[in-house]
Every structure is written in structure tokens, then in C-alpha cells.
Amino acid sequence: MEGIKFVTDAKGNKVAVQLDLKEHGDLWEDIQDGLVAEARRDEKSIPWAEVKTGLVKSGKLNK
């Protein structure tokens, strides 16, 4: 695949990947979004009503 290069160690094992962001920037964003979502999997969720109330109180959202 053009714009994607694998970096290997002395034994030929793939250890990293290089992406041409001009060609595959959207792919990288998708990968990054997935990693962020996975990292936040165990975080406490906040109900939308609570978030909305806080945004209205802070003036960041109109009622």
C-alpha cells in the first residue's frame, strides 16, 4: 500500500509503522479516535442532562 511503511528490527519483526499523513490522514484520525475511546473505556460516564445543565450555567450553551 502506498504511503505506508513498516519499520523492522534487526530480526525483521515489524516494530512501527510510518504513514504519509497527506495520503492517509483520515486513517490516522480513525486509529487515534479508537485509541482514545479504548483508553477512556472505564471512565465514569456523565448523563447528557447533567452536561447540558453545566454548559448552560457556564454560558457555553443557550437554553
Describe it.
The chain has helices spanning 21-39, 48-57; strands at 4-8, 14-19. The mean pLDDT is 96. Helices cover 46% and strands 17% of the residues. The longest helix is centred in the middle third of the chain and has 19 residues, at 21-39. It has one domain. By secondary structure, it is an alpha+beta fold. Strands 1-2 form a two-stranded antiparallel ribbon. It has 2 helices and 2 strands.
Query: Could you give the order of the helices and strands?
Result: EEHH
Instruction: Give the termini distance in whole angstroms.
Output: 49 Å
How does the major sheet shape up?
Answer: 2 strands, antiparallel
Question: What structural category arises from helix and sheet content?
Answer: alpha+beta
Helices, strands, pairings?
Blueprint: E1 4-8, E2 14-19, H1 21-39, H2 48-57
List keywords for this structure.
63 residues, alpha+beta, two-stranded antiparallel ribbon, 17% strand, elongated
